[in-house]
Design goal:
Number of helices: 6
CATH architecture of the largest domain: Orthogonal Bundle
Largest sheet: 2 strands, antiparallel
Number of domains: 2
Number of strands: 2
Radius of gyration: 23 Å
Shape: elongated
Length: about 160
Amino acid sequence: MQNKAIHHRGLTIGQIATRTGLAPSAIRFYESEGLVHPFRTDGGQRQYQRGDIRRLSFVMIAQGLGFAIKDIKAVLDRLPENRTPTPADWARISRDFRKTLEARIDQMTALRDRLDGCIGCGCLSLKTCKLYNPADRINRNGAGPRYLMGDRIIEDE
């Protein structure tokens, strides 16, 4: 019976840590970044909602995929604070997140494919590469990794 009362009030940081596999210090860090918003008991103890388990799991996955905390926060800020997010809430935010993931996958695929070509060539230099960038012509499009930014390979003119 006591266990049900704890769940009704909320989950302690220890319970959240056990469920998510995160250290309490990591959970407090995510709290300081505004990713979760525990409430305090009269005694000052943090209490988390059950939905915070999903939020923190999402944070862990998104960070593992290379997303910055500020980007993760922007996604989570679109979820309701006053209740556990529903599957419809998660589906709504996942549409935009999916677009970003697909763009990253495309970028990584292009990098992988071009690296294969460069490794096979052996030059590993887009400045001198006669195959992908003869006479450094891609430079006219601007600074940075132009091919990885989506510029097309320049064919011989």
